[in-house]
Amino acid sequence: MTDSPVSTKPLVTTDVDYQAAVSSVRRAIENYQGCTEAERRVLARDFDELQQMADKLEAGRVDIVVFGEISTGKSALINALVGGNVTQVNVQGGWTKDIWHVPWEGIGYCVPGLANSQVVLVDTPGLNEVEGHERSAIARSSASRADLVLFVTDSDLNETEYSALLELAASHKPIILVLNKADLYSRKDLQELLELFRGRRLINIVDPENVVVTQANPREMEYVIEAADGSTRTEWRKPEPKVSELKERILKVLNAEGKALIALNAAMFAADKGDRMGALRIKLREAEASKVIWSFAVTKSLAVALNPVPAVDILGGTAVDATMVVTLGKIYGMNITTSNARALVTSILKAAGWVMLSEAVVSYASSVFKALTVGYGTIATALPQGAAAGYGSYIVGQAARYYFQHGASWGDESPKQVITQILANTDKESVLERLKTEIGKKISLNRYAGDE
Ligand SMILES: Nc1nc2c(ncn2[C@@H]2O[C@H](COP(=O)(O)OP(=O)(O)OP(=O)(O)O)[C@@H](O)[C@H]2O)c(=O)[nH]1
Ligand SMILES: [Mg+2]
After folding, report:
1. 352-374: pLDDT as tens digits
2. Superfamily of domain 5-216+244-279
3. Near ion ligand 2, which residues have CB within 5 Å?
4. How far apart (Å, rounded) are the C-alpha atoms in residues 249 and 258?
5. Where are the domains of the chain?
6. Which of 70, 77, 90, 99 has most ligand 1 atoms within 8 Å of its beta carbon, as the pocket-test mutant?
């Protein structure tokens, strides 16, 4: 072997990159630790994966993920590389169901720059168009964490394979494309397939040098054996697996850029997790804010619907709105005093003057009416009146949310512009309907409770 990969000098000095990757993973873990309980629950798996990535970096482990369609010989390939029956091989497609980590100890290899590095071969379930979506998904997720992917195929690429390759290439995964089951092809057909794989179709996806041929578990062949006396007999034997070309290629890639690959992979992984955390945090916070606004709008609706005197309506309403604003502030990580919350509510109400004014008139008129009537009349007026007040709180809540989203400021807008925008984007009728339903439910519940 003239081009012994072990003698190849690493192309890139990556100590700085490696340290940067270690700190980016560490930072992502620290960010996670600052998450709320609810965020942690959703991110539990991401956190586990980050921890694993941190351990992997510390150990200097290289994960080579074997990936591809079902029954292409992924498991057989790992067995042939390791030289033993470490993973299960079967004629039945879809045999491997979980991710298997197989330490490639026999290889006795260390990535340059990582004295105690270990190489691990990761067996994954096969991709399958028709069944096993979940398994395909875990295989993809495993490939997305790989330092190097062995993409195994046993024929020309179909659409599933081609798009999976594109996906990997788009995330900058280094790929070795393995054409397995070479024993099933004539020399000529094999050559044609190789030319196809090294040709234009996979340009920028797989480096032509990274296309290799193997036979991991060749079919038995009939051998003609000639005895010394010239007589012949035939015998069925299994040819030896052929994976040495692949082995060499793997070592060459690892030698040239192993450490850089691990660092790049970890850094991209941490960045991706960081983005996910950020996006989730926003999503959860917004969902919680919506819930808070809605529950205070309902509370306000009920307070107004169930109180007969206008003065109580107004007082109760302001207190509810101020508490809502304090609660919203907490969600956005801002502590606001009750008196500041009241001031904010007042300024929102002032900016939305015309809306509140019209509602106050409705509120006053129907409160007087409510005080004078009894029985069903009360319910009939309480519904629209309570809903209108609840709608007011809903709008105040949305405006306060905007204010907190923009770091306790109105940003470049005036409060009036913000509220006009909110009003334009709110389906008033449907909010009123939903509030009426809530009030209706509560009032009829109370009525039945009273009857008992
Ligand atoms: N002729 C031939 N058959 C092979 C070769 N490699 C694997 N096979 C056969 O292909 C079948 C599938 O092999 P596996 O290693 O189980 O394939 P896999 O990709 O792990 O399959 P799943 O885990 O089901 O996705 C088995 O019957 C193997 O014996 C090869 O080089 N030549
Ligand atoms: Mg398998």
Report:
1. 875 454 455 445 445 544 444 44
2. P-loop containing nucleotide triphosphate hydrolases (3.40.50.300)
3. 74-75, 95-96
4. 12
5. 5-216+244-279, 307-451
6. 90
